[in-house]
UniProtKB/TrEMBL annotation, chain A:
<dbReference type="InterPro" id="IPR038693">
    <property type="entry name" value="PaaB_sf"/>
</dbReference>
<dbReference type="Pfam" id="PF06243">
    <property type="entry name" value="PaaB"/>
</dbReference>
<dbReference type="InterPro" id="IPR009359">
    <property type="entry name" value="PaaB"/>
</dbReference>
<dbReference type="GO" id="GO:0097266">
    <property type="term" value="F:phenylacetyl-CoA 1,2-epoxidase activity"/>
</dbReference>
<keyword id="KW-0560">Oxidoreductase</keyword>
<protein>
    <submittedName>
        <fullName>1,2-phenylacetyl-CoA epoxidase subunit B</fullName>
        <ecNumber>1.14.13.149</ecNumber>
    </submittedName>
</protein>
Automatic annotation (TrEMBL), chain B:
<dbReference type="GO" id="GO:0005829">
    <property type="term" value="C:cytosol"/>
</dbReference>
<dbReference type="InterPro" id="IPR009078">
    <property type="entry name" value="Ferritin-like_SF"/>
</dbReference>
<dbReference type="GO" id="GO:0010124">
    <property type="term" value="P:phenylacetate catabolic process"/>
</dbReference>
<dbReference type="InterPro" id="IPR052703">
    <property type="entry name" value="Aromatic_CoA_ox/epox"/>
</dbReference>
<protein>
    <submittedName>
        <fullName>Phenylacetate-CoA oxygenase subunit PaaC</fullName>
    </submittedName>
</protein>
<dbReference type="InterPro" id="IPR011882">
    <property type="entry name" value="PaaC"/>
</dbReference>
<dbReference type="InterPro" id="IPR007814">
    <property type="entry name" value="PaaA_PaaC"/>
</dbReference>
<dbReference type="Pfam" id="PF05138">
    <property type="entry name" value="PaaA_PaaC"/>
</dbReference>
<dbReference type="InterPro" id="IPR012347">
    <property type="entry name" value="Ferritin-like"/>
</dbReference>
């Protein structure tokens, strides 16, 4: 009986070196969540495949109802070197926190 | 209300908090699991013969069980982490269908369940999966051979999922409420399997010379198993008559239309390969199998058989 495995698998990954699929960042919105949350990253050949891969890798346990993917190289990030000038000035501005108001119990999402 | 000040570390340790709600220690368990059979009446409908229903459930259950095991053999061996998880997800979907179908078979006719030592805690669906010989399995032969390469795996999955989706869509109107509920769950799962395999079929066909060569070779290998899917066994004929089963011959044209669409967008000709013959009128549904099924079962069943009193 000639099986389907008559075609041998290649011994190792035969993709040319340096031809990895691009990296994507994955954001998932949960059933009760209001916003998409960054959950991790993955490799995919294109945007559509990235959505499928995200579904398979990051929503296996019924976590999500919506997925966003974006290529990692499309993200512009702040640099750790800029940490102090960017963020330290906000550290002592206590008056920016809305702690001086009484918020009624029935106001949602606060 | 106190100000809610995030500290950096806790943001990272609880990335799933926003997704799953209250108890962060449980994020890995996800949320809201549903019992596909919740509220379903499990008594046999009028005019449904228990042994026939059991035999029919074994057919659809064994297709899922054997193919699930084959797909699970990709675990840790797929070309990428992402495909590895995709394939094992599909295997687990099918294993879930197999469990429900074998359990239904056992409930419809306890006589089909292999006899285990007194006091064995092994549930009937496990007894059916792990304590039957190859000749007692009722799956089609398409699901038996080893996986081959990635192209062979995708072609077989496309053929299997296209066919099973057509069957399950009709099975939703089965007079057996349990089969109907199982089909409703399966339709959603298998729709994704078909989509996944169809995308890969197109990608491989229109990818590199090497991927196309492998895809065409895969199609020639898989196609002989296609014809058996249209055969109608005596059990299936009776299942149709009693209103709980689907006539495989009635979905053949629809399966071909879907496959033709995939072939057409992929620029691939429908293969001209003779169907694998029945042997003295017997095929997979009659317990006639390839040698590869016996070898697969020997591995799949060995641990359970060594421990018939085991609790898992």
């Amino acid at each position: 009986m000639s099986g389907l495995d008559k075609l041998a698998r290649p011994a190792q990954d035969d993709r040319p070196a340096g031809r990895e699929w691009p990296l994507y960042e994955v954001f998932v919105r949960g059933k009760r969540g209001l916003n998409h949350v960054h959950v991790g990253s993955l490799h995919a050949a294109d945007d559509e495949m990235a959505v499928r891969h995200a579904r398979d890798v990051y929503t296996r346990r019924n976590e999500g109802v919506s997925i966003w993917v974006v290529r990692s190289d499309a993200i512009t990030a702040s640099s750790p070197d800029e940490k102090d000038p960017l963020f330290a000035p906000a550290g002592d501005k206590v008056y920016r926190h809305p702690t001086f108001y009484d918020i009624p119990d029935d106001v949602p999402h606060m | 209300m106190t100000p809610h000040v995030h500290d950096h570390d806790s943001d990272h340790s609880s990335v799933y908090d926003g997704l799953v709600g209250s108890d962060p220690s449980h994020w890995a368990f996800g949320t809201d699991f549903e019992d596909p059979l919740a509220g379903v009446d499990t008594t046999l409908a009028d005019g449904v013969d228990g042994p026939t229903l059991a035999a029919y459930c074994l057919m659809l259950g064994d297709d899922a069980l054997v193919y699930s095991h084959r797909l699970s053999e990709w675990c840790s061996r797929a070309p990428d982490l992402e495909e590895d998880i995709a394939l094992t997800n599909i295997a687990l979907d099918l294993l879930g269908q197999a469990r429900l179908l074998l359990a239904r078979a056992a409930a419809a006719d306890p006589g089909v369940v292999p006899v285990l030592p007194d006091g064995s805690p092994i549930p009937p669906e496990d007894a059916l999966a792990f304590f039957r010989e190859a000749g007692e399995f009722r799956n089609v032969r398409l699901v038996e051979p080893g996986n081959g390469d990635f192209a062979v795996t995708m072609v077989r999955l496309l053929v299997f999922a296209t066919w099973r989706l057509a069957i399950m869509q009709r099975l939703e109107s089965s007079v057996d409420p349990v089969l109907s509920a199982i089909a409703a769950k399966a339709v959603k799962e298998v729709t994704y399997h078909r989509d996944y395999a169809g995308r890969w079929f197109l990608t491989l066909a229109q990818g590199t010379d090497e991927s196309r060569r492998r895809l065409l070779a895969a199609l020639d290998l898989v196609w002989p198993y296609r014809g058996e899917l249209d055969r109608v066994s005596e059990v299936e004929r009776r299942a149709v008559d009693e209103g709980f089963g689907v006539d495989p011959a009635a979905v053949a044209a629809e399966v071909d239309v879907v496959l033709e669409q995939v072939f057409s967008v992929s620029g691939v000709e429908r293969p001209e390969r003779p169907a694998l013959a029945a042997v003295r009128g017997r095929a997979g549904r009659d317990g006639l199998h390839t040698e590869e099924l016996s070898r697969m079962l020997a591995e799949m069943q060995s641990v359970a058989r060594a421990h018939p009193m085991g609790r898992w």
